[in-house]
Predict the 3D structure of the following.
Amino acid sequence: MRVLVTGATGNVGRLVVDELLGTGVEIRALTNNPGKANLPGGVEIAEGFIGRPGTVKDALVGVERLYLAPHPKTAQAVVDLAVQAGVRRIVDLSSSGADDEAQGGPSSWWFYAVERAVESAPGVEWTHLRPGEFMLNALGWADSIRDEGVVRAAYGEVSYAPLDLVDIAAVAAKTLLEDGHHGQKYAMTGPESLSKIEKVRIIGEVLGREIRFVEISHAEARAQMLAQGYGEAADWLLDGDAQMIGQPQPVLPTVPNLLGRPSRTFAEWARAHADAFR
């Protein structure tokens, strides 16, 4: 059996490749720059990018199962090519906010556009992975922690249950390889709901130094995020934080139930990435 991993050098796709290693399947990895991909031996590399569907057609030849990274503008075209190539299972990376997106018009769709394209594929088994906040997002604080020992952000008390990308990739690999997941929309969280203040404290404990959290206003945070290149996402991220104050995100058992092991804690993630904050 051959599996095509799109976005194979991205944050999640690269880890999906790792999770599939040693499982006995043939792994084909789609990457825009094979020369710099640095993928493991034994992985077949295909040059292409889902944002340019024409470059994906050849990579789909002989593929039975597909991990689909999110790229809404071309998701339908890629899914159509997958159906033509005989792909029989698609696992896509979506978001916990997909249902909220679906309440608006097509102009507001992002992850839901990918889900809609996948569900429309005739004769294809599908599974949507719907993670919430990534632990990886905390790396956005790395510069200020290294340089000043401080994190400046709005809504310090807002609590989410962040998830490690390793766990997302492990679920992706399992649902690609194992039967019984067709039609599932797996909402996923990490094992604990943490505020921004608590996450900063945990990073400080890992580093063995005090890291201060400085609360800033919505407007200050928006200006900071725009300067960092967030674009329109700055507004919906901050608005989402404002709505979640006093409502900690519930922890879901999806990951441990699927994998048969605990999901990674934020402290474990912080220890694994401590050098980024030093």
About this structure: Residues 159 and 194 are 5 Å apart (CA to CA). The chain has two domains: 2-131, 135-161+191-249+264-277. The first helix runs from residue 13 to 20. The chain has a mean pLDDT of 93.
